[in-house]
Please model this.
Amino acid sequence: MSYELTILGSSSAIPSLEKNPTAQLLNANERFFLIDCAEGTQIQLRKYKFKFHKINRIFISHLHGDHYFGLIGLLSSMHLLGREKELHIYAHAKLKQIIDVQLEASNTELCYPLFFHVINPETDEVLFEDKKIKISTFPLNHGIDCNGFLFEEKKSPRKIISEKIQEYNIPIENLKSIKNGEHFITEDGDVILNNELTIENNKASSYAYCSDTKYCESIIEKIKGVSLLYHEATFMNDRKNRAEETNHSTTIDAATIAKLAQVKHLLIGHFSQRYRDESLLLEESKRVFKNTLIAKQGRTINFSDM
Amino acid sequence: MSYELTILGSSSAIPSLEKNPTAQLLNANERFFLIDCAEGTQIQLRKYKFKFHKINRIFISHLHGDHYFGLIGLLSSMHLLGREKELHIYAHAKLKQIIDVQLEASNTELCYPLFFHVINPETDEVLFEDKKIKISTFPLNHGIDCNGFLFEEKKSPRKIISEKIQEYNIPIENLKSIKNGEHFITEDGDVILNNELTIENNKASSYAYCSDTKYCESIIEKIKGVSLLYHEATFMNDRKNRAEETNHSTTIDAATIAKLAQVKHLLIGHFSQRYRDESLLLEESKRVFKNTLIAKQGRTINFSDM
Model:
């Protein structure tokens, strides 16, 4: 069980033969979340051997084409493949109209239930929550409605040593409270200290996705201390003006946000096509925030133990 | 100068790693016409080294996703690349709404003039005509509004032997009438017979595109005698019932239309993904119409001299 992120595409604006625009797949303990869905994403999913039917929730950050033009094709292929399971999309309101008008044009009634959850671009909100994960969204600053996403694993603070369950004949109904730090009292009335039964659990994983945005300190509180932060870095620092004009960030912007938010690792991508040598962007970011990685297409990052 | 068709994609329904859904590029004497535009078409254009800016007219046969989901991405890339030239799209009315809602969502005003020409799905009509080419459309039979396209080169019946122009000092303004068979009278009043000045021109090229459709004899008159007919052949003949249910054709349907229309060559494609061995479809078609070719992705067919 782990949290793994696969970069399906990470270039900005125009697809090329080698590089797809933005799409990422988060495998959160074998639950698959698709984040953004540029043209060609369904082919990227096939290339990296992910099954469409395992994806149950799709998150679209904003309605620039390089972040969603592949969605209608993926929805359509899921239909043609006979999907029956629910699919949930989280996006800004206009995307529903875009999907509906295309389904209507082809006279298609999807063979699976599609639930569209409208994101409010003005405020933070929780989009989905259960025992294992909490997914929330927060506004970015990109000229048009644009949101980031935060995926937070939920974990008990302590992990039970499995041999102890047998040794003390611990009933299932007690396990939850023990994981939360309580002691165990045997049938004979002996108190077994929690320390003897458990060890500290791995830290829960968390992933924050921030694309696209200009430098925006209001997100820092939201993403504080995450295991992994993806933050776009379209330009290098010498093009700071261009970044501001186009509502994008520089490597230094991304790294500064990572530093201020005290995240564990920073992942940068969405580089302008002017940059042939991505290592220059990496170096520049590392000067401000050492634990920077590049969101290279095809790369999978396991950040459970980071 | 020639008529050349390049198959950018030819599979049906769902894109795969190896095969793109339908898109074709017709090079008509260095004028480029894009016919259908499935997801990934802009990448296919790059792969086969066609410049986006050379395409001035795009024809969309119908609004099933495997024939147009790549259009919005291509339009968007043309915008990002700073296109200034006019672009003309010929398609059914609903596509305009689909394009508009997506441009609106991203707050995009295209930097080039986009002209949308609505196709009437009920009747034949001429879509474009000038001195060199005539492009018309005609209804197919596919469950939703679906049209075929016919591209007809215009050529003078005769070609002037270039040495004769100098020899008799023929003024430019006389060339057209000579190409059309008239004699030339010199300044001295000598009559030079057309036979001496010209040779018979190559036959004008013509291309008919029929995808998708069930067997439909009403198109025969329209496409009579064309140099090259593309006709979908989704199924083999043993699945004739399935073809009818899904408003598609079999190899035998396509070949029968080709035969009745006395076309020179037939190109079949849009094969169902159930077929691994395309040579079986080719063989079946050839039994009815010998000059059958397969619309293999990446194939370029020069049919000027066919």
Summary: DSSP finds ten helices and 18 strands in chain B. Residues 3-155+202-302 of chain B form a domain with the Metallo-beta-lactamase; Chain A fold (CATH 3.60.15.10). The CA atoms of residues 236 and 281 of chain B lie 6 Å apart.
